[in-house]
Amino acid sequence: QLSPRRVLSDANRRGGSTVSKTFMRRLVWRDLAYWQLHHWPTMPRVPIRPQYAHQVWRSDSAMLRAWQQGQTGFPLVDAGMRQLWQTGWMQQSIRMVTACFLTEYLNMSWVHGASWYHDTLVDADLAINSMMWQNAGKAGMDQWNFTLLPTSKAQDPNGEYTRTWVPELARLPNKYILAPWTAPDQVLQQAGITLGTTYPHRILDTDFQELKAQNRSAILETRRLHGPASDKDGYDIVTVPEGSTKGNDGQPMRVYTIKPYREVTRPS
Asked: What is the pLDDT of residues 199-258, one digit of tens each?
């Protein structure tokens, strides 16, 4: 194994910040994750934003199992989860697709995702994995301010990735590869696909925007019922543990809160 300091030193010596700012930022994110885990040792299961521990999530073991096994009926999600199970690895943006699907669309706790990733990833890192899942579930220090749709062609423009890991859909035209339920019966028949038999029906058929709104409402209700834990501008407040900062130990600290939550929960 390489020391992160060795990696940083070698990268700086070779002009790393000009070659890839993303790579250099991720070295910093690694230290941020370890700082968080050191000062919040329960981070793998307990939200850093304490009021979010009260959030009401969906409890559905069949849905969770479908997500874990890549049988959700959403091909891009299924491709990622099957690759994870078979190889122990998944590309970064696909990890985000599957995480958003679990937390925002299935409205299931980020703890389930963190636990499954930690058990299955060959590059599992407790600190980084916990930090990223907390952020995906909006419970961490840096809430994700984006959502990746499971039908977005930006992640798999020609369907090659999906066809690799969901071979039962391999004969579908690109137009339908990420949303086979939209394909006409004749197209499905020609591709040898029977939804519900050769490939599962979607475990959700609700509009994505509506599902996202439901998840948002659950978070807002949690903040309303279990506050006040926000400042005058609507930002969440976290009490900083002893020894974690140079000047704010034991004091309330503002943490990044995405705009829709700030606007709705700002005190009058």
From this structure: 999 999 889 999 999 999 999 888 888 876 778 888 999 998 988 888 878 888 899 999
Instruction: Point out which residues pair with 252 in neighbouring strands.
Output: 239
Contact of 250 with 263, CB cutoff 8 Å: no
Per DSSP, the three-state class of 171 is coil
Range in 48-52, 150-154, 220-224, 254-258 with the lowest mean pLDDT: 220-224
Structure tokens given for 107: 């409205």
Secondary element (H or E) of residue 237 = strand 237-239
Would you say 107 and 116 are in contact if contact means Cβ atoms under 8 Å apart? no
Sort strands 252-254 and 237-239 into parallel, antiparallel or unpaired.
antiparallel
- Whose structure tokens read 């609700």? 206
- What's the CA angle centered on 116, arms 113 and 119, to 5 degrees? 145
